[in-house]
Amino acid sequence: MGLHVVILAAGKGTRMRSDKPKVLHEIAGKPMLHYVIETAQALHADQIHVVHGHGGDQVKQVSADYPVNWVEQAQQKGTGHAVQQAMPHVPDNAGVLVLYGDVPLTQSASLQPLIDAANEGDLALLTSVLDDATGYGRIVRNANDLVRAIVEHKDAADDELAIREINTGMLAAPAGRLRDWLSRINDDNAQGELYLTDIVGLAVADGVAVQAAHPQHAWEGDGVNSRQDQARLERIFQGLLADQLMADGVTVADPARLDIRGNLRCGRDVFLDVNTLFLGDVELGDGVSIGPNTIIDNCRVADGVHIRENCVLEKSIIGKDCTIGPFSRVRPESDLAANVHLGNFVELKKAKVAEGSKINHLSYVGDSIVGRDVNIGAGTITCNYDGANKHLTEIGDDVFVGSDTQLVAPVKVGKGVTIGAGTTVTRDIPDDLLCISRVPQKHIKGWQRPRKKGN
Ligand code: UD1
Ligand code: CA
Known about the structure:
alpha/beta, Spore Coat Polysaccharide Biosynthesis Protein SpsA, Chain A, UDP N-Acetylglucosamine Acyltransferase, domain 1, 11-stranded parallel β-sheet, 8-stranded parallel beta barrel, 37 strands, 18% helix, elongated, binds uridine-diphosphate-N-acetylglucosamine, binds calcium ion
């Protein structure tokens, strides 16, 4: 039997106090809706229907890479009404699983039992037992402990309000039966809405078994209605990622102070210090250590690299055994070969640096190709920008660049060259010589320092 997943994502999310549709708010840098779509994909859904309403165009645009069927619910008349909108696209012989765009962390393993039950013709609910059930639909059971109905908080009598088993909202049912039940619900209730939950009473009346399964973890059923809910789920999700890394052999100095917004792949014996943030696709080789307060955005870092505290690395490649930082900034399209050293207050941009070269203090190297075993002295600047265009600086192997050198690009420094401190290089330098441009030093005798007036 095929599986159709219906994701409800039409709600406004008033309590987020945001211009952005709720389901586009992010957990770990990814819109919540995308987690739910990916869960549906993991369950091998034949088709995924997303019911959109508020901010629908924006939701569709941001989700354009996902192969889903968009269904509009122009007016939000309740969860039952929302599912009704998708049903014309679902064949009678399918199983239907209903998920929520603002409940991002449900795991496919917790949903599979619902799908199995629907495939057997039953109605299956995902329920949780909470200490405080305020606001949720309550699961009402009969004397034999069988599910009899769901009663919404606003419609519940006092004895029903005491029930702690709640409806997460997620459910699965055979499509033909679901279609029939949905045609029979009405809005005769406290909120004047078409409640999806009313299908439970109808199923019971039809003699259809209603199963209830709990998720493996209570938070799998948690939705996001506020920024507080969002922050709480963010920490839960980050905790899961940290746990997985540690299970895979990574040392995490403090799992509460690690953030991964993307995919982080680690080799053996990697060390991640506190307040490290990884964005996009990051790959760390064996034995890599990342110092505190460091941000790594879409980089490939080879084995044995030590990145010290307070570094920012973006869209770059770091070769084996490099040491970087503290306080280095590596901007996009940089490519370091093995054993390169970058020190404090060094900025690289689109710089290719060959093996064994060192740029240790206070330098800017941009739009550059640096050879092997080059030593770039403190305060060296590549003047790569003339106000209109960027130009290339090429530095040959084994060059020694004295401190406080400016290299006015485009310019080429031959191999083996020594550049004296304080030089402004404006012409290409042939191999193996000393280049120096310096005003001769003067000594003025009898010089009197100015004195403060009135003394
Ligand atoms: C719903 C359930 C309740 C359950 C709770 C779990 C019903 C009637 N009640 O209540 O039993 O305990 O969720 O959080 O189903 N939505 C639409 N279109 C609509 C209405 C809602 O897409 O017309 C979407 C919302 O965007 C939201 C979800 O459905 O993502 C739930 O809607 P909400 O109004 O929050 O339902 P609750 O009253 O919380
Ligand atoms: Ca809700």
